[in-house]
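Predict both folds.
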Amino acid sequence: MHTVIRTNHFPEADRFEYWTESLSRVLVPVNLYTRDPARFRGSMHLLDLGPVQIGRVTCSSVHTRRTDELIRRSDPEVILVAIPLSGRCVVTQSRDEAFADPQGVLVYPTWRPFSLKAYANEAGIVDGVFAMVPRSLLPRPRGVHYDRPMALTNADGTNAVLRDFLTSALGEIGVLRRPKAARLSLAVADLVAAAVTHDMGHDASQADASQGRQERLRTRLASIYRFIAENLGDPGLTPATIAAAHHMSTRTLHRLFENEGHTVARWIREQRLERCHRDLNDPTLWHRPIHAIAAGWGIEDAAQFARAYRAKFGHTAQEYRHAAIERFLTAIEGTDDVRGRDDRREGA
């Protein structure tokens, strides 16, 4: 799926709020700050490869914060890989800090609170590509951890390889098909792991003994995650049906998920709620009743959905949709006001 976010469709007064809300919806919940919200500009292209998301973002200087509260609201347990093409970025987590300019790569976990400051170049622009990779897809050679921010050097050219690979994949928007997208997910994860491993000075031979097993495990998990994503709308999607589709016992499936940080059932439930949350904010779906949106994502019990949604997001689905409609109408009214002033100037 290809998602495009642009602030230029909104009045200046609403652009930064729209940008903040959109990033929190399609990536992970965050708080954003900027020196002059009225002059903020931003655009983002996001490509969903299944387990992995990649994108390109261009925007004004901005400060991004992810707090414990926001992590509790939504924690997909992904690593964020940021590659500046212009401007520079500094990420801080606890006492650790990492910096990257257009020659560098930042790698940091989104399951820990972080502060990311993106500074624009002389033209007032921050430009970069990024990837969001589930922790479960990343191989973990001995001594390699992903629980703190890292700034990768470019001594062996792996940064450039990763940057060029992401840029090339983003260039295939519109022609990319599902089987290739799944392969690209694994390729992105492998490139990130290779860049981290090389930067830390690990020789590839150190991990060879376990790498084969990890590769098979990651391939199997990627197939399962992809199957879940493709069948979320089926109310009959259960651990048993997933196991049967992958020719394994339910016990084996649960064992595969032991190190994932969530059970199979919880992952299904969380993903369904995230999809409903996204659709409630979509103006093209506001004609659909909330219970129909929930049913479309496999949650047929309206009362169960209401309880689960409120527990996860801290408000009811109706409250969230109402707020989204209010923001949209305010933005439209602001646009009409701007057009009206322009028409009056032209007629004067």
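Second protein follows, with its predicted structure tokens after the sequence.
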Amino acid sequence: MEKRYKQQYSSYYTDCLVVCPECGKDAVVKNENNYKEAVLECRHCNLRKTGYEMVVYKAIVKLHCPVCAHSIRVERCVKEKLPKISVQCGECDARFDIKPRYEKYFSNYSQKAQGLKQDDVFGCPLYFQDDCKGNLFWAKNREYLLEMEAYISSELRTLPYRMRMVERLPAFIKEAKNREAVLKILQKWKNSYR
């Protein structure tokens, strides 16, 4: 009898396993969909960061000096919005307190990822990712990994009424010629994380 695929997990995105930016071991990102509530926790080095801590503001001031009409442009990164910042004209050295315009940015660890799939808030590389026949193959967490394994190892894959995660998998994962290679990587990941 053929092995039929049956969905096992309903929520794949509750937590996301990432590589800790401090110790390089596994860490968990919780509430990844909302940066204000997102938390990065490492059980090995006790790192704990919140998404709110990663917010940085760029204060931007563009104006012409009221004294000499010289163009003034100032950009500063600040942790909190300030009501006014002090700027100085480069020509006449006059000082002004000006209300800046702010742009919000996230200061994250994305420079350490170097082409790998990352979580959306902290920019840490995902814990489960590998090269599979020239393609980046990744899983966000253990439930995601187990669901992919059940889908890929099944011989009969019926299409449900509503689209699920497994129907959106890249073609190289679904192809029969890559089945053994993909399952081998999934098994390696399962054995590496307890």
